[in-house]
UniProtKB/TrEMBL annotation:
Transmembrane segments: none annotated. It comes from Iodobacter ciconiae. The keyword Hydrolase does not apply. It is found in: Cytoplasm. Belongs to the YejK family. This is Nucleoid-associated protein.
């Protein structure tokens, strides 16, 4: 049984070529819930989840300039889905008129519930020409929605929004600035806090090492490559892209790492400059107890400079510097 229970589904059409005028063709009814409609939504949800390079954020405060929040609130209070979607399209029209490079397509708006989720999915799909065999087994043209080339899409998590989450809107960043109009249409403020995003990236790398069951030496190598690469980006004030991170840090199978970093639970965006303070745990092990604090390079555990004995829970530090040795002698004599 599908987990994408369709509550409402409607499609409107945008007529526009690059650098051309924009017009709308608004539907006057919702799409009937059929097996074909369900397959389409299941496919779009899967594709959206798998897409890399998402932005995340919350509603803009200026509801006059960004009316989506008000429209969603009215919808939650019982407004008609059809009329609400038509109002959304009028706002999208204004955004499209400000983006000359954007092109038209079919705008699918779906409210999806199930398994504790409640969200609205927005996608813009273009048409593509294919071929089919007709009833007489002759080759004929067939026009269909180009779902495989999903580039413009966004999602508003209604449950997270109502429960005061920090970020509940996501959208596909795409390449260049073409998708910026769609972010504005969603009313999404995607201010990126570099420190938090870098911390999430480090957490994602640790999670990946655990899932891959990497031996300690390979994990150290992974973290060392990550630290070196992210430190270079931070020093040069260059923004992160998850695709390039995966290629640089895990070059033999970058998609394995990309899938972890782009998981929706991590909610990691790209486009931020790494905070060099937050990448320190990749190279340094830091811990504390009620009466002491300890920090050392992770490689020390492999070199023997730091030795942990799990049988009696002792930690031995070797090659103590002379100055430290004198201080310890003074404290204990």
């Amino acid at each position: 049984m599908t987990t994408n229970a369709i509550s409402h589904l409607i499609s409107h059409q945008i007529n526009k070529e690059a650098h051309g005028p924009v017009s709308l063709r608004l539907s006057n009814k919702e799409i009937t819930h059929t097996p074909a409609a369900q397959r389409l939504i299941d496919q779009l949800c899967k594709l959206y989840t798998q897409k890399l390079g998402k932005g995340f954020g919350s509603f803009e405060e200026d509801q006059e300039a960004f009316p989506m929040q008000g429209l969603i609130r009215q919808l939650m209070e019982g407004a008609d889905f059809l009329s609400s979607s038509q109002q959304m399209m009028q706002h999208l029209l204004l955004r499209l008129e400000q983006e000359p490079l954007a092109s038209g397509g079919h705008v699918l708006i779906a409210r999806i519930k199930g398994n504790g989720t409640d969200f609205i999915l927005f996608t813009i799909l273009s048409e593509i020409m294919g071929t089919m065999l007709d009833e007489e087994l002759n080759v004929a043209d067939s026009i269909y929605l180009d779902t495989a080339n999903l580039k413009v899409a966004g999602k508003i998590d209604l449950h997270a929004w109502q429960n005061g989450a920090e970020r509940y809107i996501s959208f596909l960043r795409g390449r260049g600035d073409v998708a910026a109009y769609f972010k504005s249409f969603l009313g999404c403020n995607d201010i990126v806090v570099a420190l938090k995003e870098t911390q999430k990236l480090v957490h994602g790398l640790s999670q990946f090492a655990e899932e891959q069951h990497l031996p300690p030496a390979e994990r150290d190598q992974l973290f060392e490559r990550a630290h070196e690469y992210l430190d270079e980006l931070g020093n040069a004030s260059c923004p992160v892209t998850l695709e390039q991170v995966a290629e640089q840090i895990w070059p033999d199978a970058p998609m394995q790492l990309q899938n972890v970093l782009d998981h929706q639970d991590l909610a990691l965006t790209d486009g931020f400059v790494p905070d060099r303070r937050a990448i320190k745990p990749l190279r340094t092990f830091k811990t504390k107890a009620p009466h002491w604090k300890l920090e050392f390079d992770r490689s020390s555990l492999r070199s023997g400079a730091v030795h942990y004995n799990p049988e009696n829970d002792t930690l031995v530090l070797s090659n103590i510097p002379e100055e430290m040795r004198k201080e310890l002698l003074a404290e204990t004599s």
